[in-house]
Amino acid sequence: MAARSVRRWGLGASCSAGHGELERPPQQPAGLNYLLVAQAGERFGYWGLKATLLLFLIEDLRIAPSTGLALFAGLSALQSVTGLIGGIVSDRAVGARLSAVLGMGLLLAGYGAFATNWPGVGPMAHLYGCLGLLATGTGFDIAVASEVMAILA
Q1: How far apart are CA 136 and CA 86, in angstroms?
Q2: Alpha-carbon distances, residue 115 vs 17, 68, 110, 127 (angstroms)
Q3: How far apart are CA 70 and CA 74, in angstroms?
Q4: What's the gap between Cα 92 and its chain centre?
Q5: How many whole angstroms separate alpha carbon 149 and alpha carbon 153?
Q6: pLDDT in tens, 30-41
Q7: What is the pTM of this model?
Q8: Considering Cα of 73, then 74, then 75, then 80, what sign does the dihedral take?
Q9: How many Å apart are CA 83 and CA 85, to the nearest integer?
């Protein structure tokens, strides 16, 4: 009975239901799952960082709230601008796939750098280095997400 209802709704292989042949729904592109996981991870990291960055700056690094807000706003602006730059570089130099891989690599390096200490580097230099990696990685990644989706389709 269950196989019959599956076939009736067109979820199985093609079958005859009295109204002609039902066909299988079209399959999604092979790399779509990877793109989905990469974009979900990027967005999770982006919004997670946005939610905790200001608290980290004020509480752990003892930065004045006005300076912390300025850094927070600067990171947001930089991530928007690097999206434009990443799109231009992707279109004219490296291509969409390499740009997406480069963006993910820079994001992983940035989040990994946040999790480690850099010997001999002050906390503000460490912070600026991590934020620079994240902003550049976001620029490469966000700029090519729709282009990679078009390639997959």
Answers
A1: 8
A2: 58, 20, 9, 11
A3: 6
A4: 21
A5: 6
A6: 778 888 888 888
A7: 0.73
A8: positive
A9: 5
